[in-house]
Amino acid sequence: MIAEIGRWGLCLTEIEQLAERLRTFFERFRSSFRTKTHNKSEFGYHYMSGLLRLETERTMAHIARQTGMAEQNTQHFMSNSPWSGQRLISDLQQALRQHPEFQAGAMLVIDESADQKAGHASAGAGRQYNGRLGKIELSQVGVFAALVTPRVNTWIDGELFFPEHWFSDDYAEPRQKVGFPAGRTFQTKPDLAWKLIQRLRTQGVPFDAVAMDDLYGRNAALRQRLQVAQIEYYGDIPQNTVVYLDQPQISAPLTKRGQPRKTYRIVAHQRFEVRQLLEHPALEWAVLTLRPNARGHLRARFGRCRVWTVHEGTARQEWLLIRQDNKQITYVLSNASPTTSLETMAWRKSHRYFIERSNQDEKGELGWDEFQAIKYLAWEHQLALTILASWFIAETRLDWMNRFERDPALLEQYQIDVLPRLSVRNVRELLRAAMPLPQLSTQEAAALVVQHLTNRTRSRKSRLRKRRASSFET
Questions:
Q1: Dihedral sign, CA of 195, 197, 198, 202?
Q2: pTM for this predicted structure
Q3: Best CA proximity match to 197, nearest among 218, 214, 211
Q4: Torsions phi, psi of 204, nearest 5?
Q5: Rg (CA), the chain
Q6: Measured on CA atoms in the order 232, 233, 239, 240, is the torsion positive or negative?
Q7: pLDDT tens digits, one per residue of 55-64
Q8: Helix crossing, 85-98 with 376-403: angle to 10°?
Q9: What are 298's strand-pairing partners?
Q10: Inter-axis angle of helices 71-79 and 60-67, to 10 degrees?
Q11: Counting runs of H as helices and runs of E as strands, what totals does the chain give?
């Protein structure tokens, strides 16, 4: 069995040292948890280890119990302590920036992710579209950025979306309760995406291009911002998006006073919705095999042509890229150079899948969808610690892939062309074996139950007291 383990690029000594590896990894970011008066780094270490090792119920209270931390102190560390989650994320981005894996060929992928909420009290909660459920529900939505290479993908930043009603006068009290970030004004999700992209570029995080779904791709203002910043993009668009095959002539009729009207007129001979171009002779088509996947290889038909789009009275030329997988068709606009090959464009566009993979990993493997808190600061702290845990796994996987080769005879043995890579779940299983969670004694379990009952009793007492006080006032 030991020989078989080695054939798959695993080293028992390395696995046995995973606990030490985790501690050494964390030491590089310990200073990010210091405030002016306290050092909260041990809470950060234990909380991160809980995210990595627990299978379910990754709430603040349960993580505290399982890792030996005081529950109230953990709650304070996450919801009230002024350590900077953004500073930790910035330090992580610097580590990513310097890693050899991301020096060439990395893609930045933007997407949102929604989590259903039971009440309106959580920061940013509101009735809004939840893509996971496919409908409008009471949810909390974040806009996230993932860095993707052919071998690894990981979240690297995010912003919490606040629906517009959070900025109304009626929400003054909820804003105060959640610790609304100072100076925050309403920003759309594309605005937040642009904010993330700018921040990552300022940090020097290397990426060749940005990929995004149709919420962001159809936003002409965001595409224009990326164009001005000379950032290559691949944005999905709806099938009814209007484009022009010839350069449109745009005129703004004058008012009676001789001033240009706010509305303008577009004159073009070849105006189409993108779905109408599927059979157009202007398209250059090819069937391309991009990468291995669970069903064999990602193979799809790609077509492209140069088109014109109009935004705020200005015409600009872009690529229309079409991907056809059986009956599923995706339309994309890109500002890639006119000399960029179809193969390169198809490859870069197809990276958007990996943020969906990242979202699944952060939720299913690192407990993002189990997070429960009211305050904005807790959301920011949870994001920073989730990215920290994700980067530990990504760095471990990359290190092992580089140092431990797999037996090439496995390909012949299983009659397959590519072996699956180590997953996030695989690394977590190995970490749990090397760093097992403590097993409670009967007395310890009973003490936890008593503590839980005590907390519920105090909570009920507090609610009753408030209710009585309210009845006296009325």
A1: positive
A2: 0.89
A3: 211
A4: 80, 20
A5: 26
A6: negative
A7: 988 999 999 9
A8: 20
A9: 291
A10: 130
A11: 17, 14
